[in-house]
Amino acid sequence: MKVGIVYTSTTPELISDVEREVRGKLGDNVELYNQQDPSILQQVRDAGYVTTEPASRLIGMYMKAAEEGCDAILNVCSSVGEVADCAQSVADYIGVPIVRIDEDMCREAVRIGKRIGVMATLQTTLEPTKNTVRRVAREMKRNVEIVDCLVDGAFGLDQAQFKDRLQGAASTIIDKVDVIVLAQGSMAYAEPDLTERFHKPVLGSPRFGAAALKEALIRKGRM
């Protein structure tokens, strides 16, 4: 079994978390076909939204994974998650599901809480994640209140500084929310510390993405 993992930005923590979760769900024998293009995220950040060129390159990465024999594809970047949504019709046609890393995380947040905090270090990730929360809430017929929290200046910090910055930001919204969503997969390694400190559910996306990937492969008959 072979799965494609598509990154638009990588940190050692992100790659480690994603691969650990995927292998934990699919087994150590799964072949991982990783693709990375940091210029996609940079272009999205520069423009403030997803424009034609980075979206086209991202879709090309999906198609390359399909050409290379991947059974399913995991889209890791939440800033471009809506591109994955748009590609679903093609994915269905070619029989290679594209799984968003964050959708089931958002669904779980809606399931367990009405007041949902969405934390991100990039504005370009904050808005798409809020859109996903609203969409799944609509699908689940639940009313939710979103409290956004942009952790400005945290992107690119080392682990200790990053965790400190996240904890400081979380402290400003924790009394207003029932659950916190970490909008970027690269934030997930801070999940245990935030949960321990604030005693409320904090959700990181890699574990949800890996579980959704497994479900997609089961539906396809590959597991």
Descriptive tags:
223 residues, alpha/beta, Rossmann fold, 4-stranded parallel β-sheet, globular
Give the overall pLDDT as a whole number: 94
Question: How many separate domains make up the residues?
Answer: 2
What is the name of the CATH class of the largest domain? Alpha Beta
Q: Based on helices, strands and strand pairing, what is the structural class?
A: alpha/beta
CATH topology of the largest domain: Rossmann fold
Assembly type of the chains comes to single chain
Helix content estimate: 40-55%
Gross CATH architecture of the largest domain: 3-Layer(aba) Sandwich
Which spans of ≥5 residues are poorly predicted at pLDDT below 50?
Answer: none
Give the count of helical stretches: 10
Global outline: globular
Q: What percentage of the residues does DSSP assign to strands (E)? A: 15-25%
Main β-sheet, in a few words? Answer: 4 strands, parallel
Give the total of beta strands: 8
Evaluate the radius of gyration: 17 Å
Strand and helix map with partners:
Layout: E1 2-7, H1 12-26, E2 31-36, H2 38-47, H3 52-67, E3 72-75, H4 81-86, H5 88-94, E4 98-100, H6 103-112, E5 115-120, H7 123-139, E6 145-150, H8 159-171, E7 179-182, H9 191-198, E8 202-203, H10 205-220
Parallel strand pairs: 1-2, 1-3, 3-4, 5-6, 5-7, 7-8
Helix pairs in contact: 1-10, 2-3, 6-7, 8-9
Overview of the molecule:
The chain has 223 residues and is α/β, with parallel strands linked by helices. The protein folds into two domains: 2-101 and 207-220, Rossmann fold (3-Layer(aba) Sandwich); 103-204, Rossmann fold (3-Layer(aba) Sandwich). The chain is built from ten helices and eight strands. The strands form two sheets. It has a four-stranded parallel sheet, with helices on both faces. The protein has a four-stranded parallel sheet with strand order 6-5-7-8, with helices on both faces. Helix 2 (38-47) runs antiparallel to helix 3 (52-67) and helix 8 runs parallel beside helix 9.
